[in-house]
Amino acid sequence: MARRARPHFWTPQRSSEIWGILLFFGSLFLLMCLLSFHSDDSSFFTSRPSVHIHNLGGMVGASVAGAMMLVMGVTSYLLVGLGFLWSLARFQGKPPQRLQIKILSTILFCVAVSSLLYVLWVHVPDVKFFYRGGMIGTWAGNHLLNYFGWWGAVVVLFTVGLLCLLLSTELEIWPALSRAIKSFKMPKFSIRTKAPIVRGLEKRKEKEQKEREWKYQRKNQ
Prior knowledge:
It contains seven helices and no strands. By secondary structure, it is mainly α.
């Protein structure tokens, strides 16, 4: 008698669910660390770090948040958003993209956004270093301004950032836009909702039509 085959434990669906859980809670932890970021917690920003850690992630969270804010500034929050999108894609069972393409597009996306922040705030010296895109934004933004100028740098960075966002998140913009256009319907205006001038013209036309019909009937009698 043939033995009954046992179901495999590590199925593709189970693998996607495990990766989705890891990405979700990893992104949640990173968001918690960034929201509770304090410059006195990390030795990256002060020579005398605070004894009391303010970060909700403890010493690890303070170090991770400090390094991310130093390297790419507030662009770190977009990395958290990407993590949530990847988690959602895994829960939906979408086939994963090539890891090399996803990593490269994510890095270029962060560089493009950080540089764009620096370019946008370059004429405002009072803006903090975090909001200027960190070290990456300062370095790449300066080079792009020298080669392309302000407007050219904005166009280049916006284009690169949008393309890398599509590659890193596997988003489909055109199908979403087509569905939105198809679902959009113009409202049907009734006589009550029309303007007074339009209503007056319609009543006048109806009155003239009735007069013509009355004259035609009287002529044929």
